[in-house]
Amino acid sequence: MNYTLHQLQVFLKITQTKSITKAAEELHLTQPAVSIQLKNFQDQFEIPLTEIFGRQLYVTDFGKEIAIAAQNIIDEVYNINFKTLAFKGILSGKLKISVVSTGKYVMPYFLSNFTNHNNGIELEMDVTNKLKVIKSLKNNEVDFSLVSTLPSGIDVNSEVLLPNKLFLVGNTEKKVLNIKKTNEYIINNSLIYREEGSATRIALENYIKKQGIQAKMKLQLTSNEAVKQAVIAGLGLSIMPLIGLKNELENKTITIIPVKNLPVITNWTLIWLKGKKLSPAAAAFLKFVREEKGNIIKNHFSWIESY
Fold first, then answer.
1. 26 band by pLDDT with thresholds 50, 70 and 90
2. Is the domain covering 5-82 a CATH 1.10.10.10 domain?
3. DSSP 31-97
4. pLDDT band with cut points at 50, 70 and 90 for residue 299
């Protein structure tokens, strides 16, 4: 056996993505380079690691066992690096955070100064949908998750970061002339929804249910960015988090439609498993958030108070 750490990293990424193309993209390598590394790694084993059926790559049971071993080896190499930095008095380690899609407008501002002052910390931030965020937290795959509504059926500790306001929005051509007739206005305009399980989708459904509105669903989209572009294009109305609309409101490509019982207000909240023993990197980040939260809100999110 004469495999390299690089081959282990490439093979592990292939098993995670189930695709040479996707592995190449995430590793910032060319597809041929990844294929060559996989072949060179496979040549050291008599048993197949992967199989191709049609155009789909599958990892064999033996390949899955090798992937687990590869992950353990890579983790140990990282631990050697972290311990070296620790002996130098430098805070080090991995900080893993999963973030719901709209949280990408929030989380970077709570991370930038912390990571800039702690160069020994490796940050992994996965921005994805709510269901995957909660799954990664339940499986103890991350240190923290950022959500706008607390999950049910899972015991967590939490730290509120800032308010999350959701408004009904349309493009600037969709203006309500009589606020008292808002329900009628909504009924006569199609609504744009997020996917099932999204906190934004739940807020929209709860609102129209409480108002007794029989609304028409025009589109269902899987990201707030897609919903935003659809609203700007005039395809319909939607209830959206204010945090992702700063530029559009300033540029007047989107307008907030004043309606009764809106905005819905929740909180952007950092959560972690109750009873979880935080790593030194994770504990230091939580301490930083608690100490600097006020300054971060003042410097980057004070505009929210205007709405």
1. confident
2. yes
3. HHHHHHHHHHHHTT-SS-SEEEETTEEEE-HHHHHHHHHHHHHHHHHHHHHHHHHHHTT--EEEEEE
4. very high
